[in-house]
């Protein structure tokens, strides 16, 4: 019969410490996700309750501020509450760390609310189906892989293929919408985070943005928590502000590595590729929190763009297939397209959206329908034409037009296009006239079109617009 001292129910004793993790004995009333404090004001988070080989009950915990080192043998007190992050309006235009310390503040100070870092995802009754579109400002995405508010869309690709670029463009495009954006950066270098932040500041985007970061040099615990804090921050604005919000998790492959590190430090058995067996649950409970809430709860929505980095274009890796199966679609980026100068380098064949087209504006649905069909026919014909020497006139026409259609989807970064302009471009693209242009002139054609003031477009029929731009292009040559 094991006798337990009365105190050890409420107090715990640290029996070992690791990098960011501790093992406790005692604290028998602890529950998973409970926080505790120590005499040196460190805060810990219970993540594992287990019995060691001699059947002693032990607790594995994470340290939320690992800069305060702990000694073996010191006691801890449970707080019987969940880990929280303090939020408020001051989070807008600021950079926070995963436990809520402000790294950069825009100067706003407001009431602070504690908000649970990990909360259960909204249930079925609290949701409604996705019905509104989220415009990313990228014509290639909004036309063929549309995204709805409340959807989870994975951005997957090798390094340096423009994953962050797509995220930033989507943030920039929310300037005139009500969507609040949260950019969560984990495992990146501080300099690249600063670069992202500055480019957003330059484009005046920080007034509807808040950023969370755990750099590559932060502890694994911070990198792991960062994704959940990001979700909590978005939820805060979705629930209290009844706003639609966009959460970018850049990137979840680092999150998986951080969790693997913690897991191994806690001496738990490793599974496939040394990732813990529960890695699927780690990501699914995070992504499950994105939702389109019912009107009773304010009708806000949390759209999530997790980012995954692949190696050599292999989307069938362990973590990426996990996330593909959790999300409602993916935008796959291809290094080959990137190198051949097609930007954004979206691989249309591998990219899908499972719910987004429900919210797509019918005008866009109409023009994009024709466009997608022609593009698909072109792609098929292109691979076929590499072998066939002589093609019929019909096929040749299709190839010449197709080459120009591909050209139209090219878009430089940091220059999102509004929905009406996108529809305009696609309806111009559907016209036969496009064939008259040389491929190198398509870019000029688009720029001329984008320069036309909107009000004139209301007065002149589109075929006339197209004709006059083509004339200008010819004149320019
Ligand atoms: C299990 O934990 C108890 C309490 O810390 C310790 O005395 C015992 O040696 C541990 N057993 C093993 C096999 O590590």
From TrEMBL:
InterPro entries: ATP_synth_asu_C, ATP_synth_asu_C_sf, ATP_synth_F1_a_nt-bd_dom, ATP_synth_F1_asu, ATPase_F1/V1/A1_a/bsu_nucl-bd, P-loop_NTPase. GO terms for cellular component: chloroplast thylakoid membrane; proton-transporting ATP synthase complex. GO terms for molecular function: ADP binding; ATP binding; proton-transporting ATP synthase activity, rotational mechanism. Its EC number is 7.1.2.2. The keyword Cell cycle does not apply. It comes from the Eukaryota. It is found in: Membrane; Plastid, Chloroplast thylakoid membrane. The chain crosses the membrane at residues 9-32. Residues 137-352 form the ATPase F1/V1/A1 complex alpha/beta subunit nucleotide-binding domain. Keywords: ATP synthesis, ATP-binding, CF(1), Chloroplast, Hydrogen ion transport, Ion transport, Membrane, Nucleotide-binding, Plastid, Thylakoid, Translocase, Transmembrane, Transmembrane helix, Transport. It catalyses: ATP + H2O + 4 H(+)(in) = ADP + phosphate + 5 H(+)(out). CDD domains: ATP-synt_F1_alpha_C (cd18113), F1-ATPase_alpha_CD (cd01132). Signal peptide: none annotated. F-type ATPases have 2 components, CF(1) - the catalytic core - and CF(0) - the membrane proton channel. CF(1) has five subunits: alpha(3), beta(3), gamma(1), delta(1), epsilon(1). CF(0) has four main subunits: a, b, b' and c. Belongs to the ATPase alpha/beta chains family. This is ATP synthase subunit alpha, chloroplastic. It comes from Symbiodinium sp. Mf1.05b.
